[in-house]
Amino acid sequence: MNSELDDRSYTFSNKISRVILLSMEEVLGKNGLNAVLHTARLPHYIDSYPPADFEPGMTFEESGRLFEAMEGMFGQRAGRRLARQSGHICFRFGIEGFGAVIGFMDFMLRILPITLRARIGLEVLAEILNRYSDQRVTLKEDGATYFLEITRCGICWGRYASEPVCFLIIGIVEEILYWVSRGRRFDVGEVACIAKNDPMCIVQVQKVPIS
Hints:
Structural class: alpha+beta
CATH topology: H-NOX domain
Strand content: 15-25%
CATH class: Alpha Beta
Distance between the termini: 36 Å
Strand order of the largest sheet: 3-4-6-5
Oligomer: single chain
Shape: globular
CATH architecture: Alpha-Beta Complex
């Protein structure tokens, strides 16, 4: 159960909202995304994506309905796979939208060891989400693992599930780690989720690449 539901509308910025919708369009096709938007009761986004600015955009309540509708239309397994693929593409679109931050990272990453590159990538992701949305993300670690702790999550907002459902975030994390490591793969998974009544969403990343 999401314990933070109240009268306030938490939002993603317009820029992040636009990236999410463009990424889903690339994965689902325009007609597929339009069908999902209809099912999610979000017809106002059809052919009218938010502008590329940092004003408040899609609400968490809307984004929760969006991903729930995708699972409802395509089935749980396929819907989650599509959300994950959309996360991969979100990062690629995000490079264009947050070019100054990414450009600095690209310079620094050439000289750093791979585990530190992974940490910097996750720190930048947390900073972008904290600054340009109402999500609240903290990066923690132990000897072998990084943990992204999300205490206010717009992906599973208002949802109820027996398993973690934030597959868009998993896809984004996988893609940013692939980029910062120059093509390595990491073990990434969500081990706690507000949608299943956990106190926060936790995305876990093993520090050592698996390939």
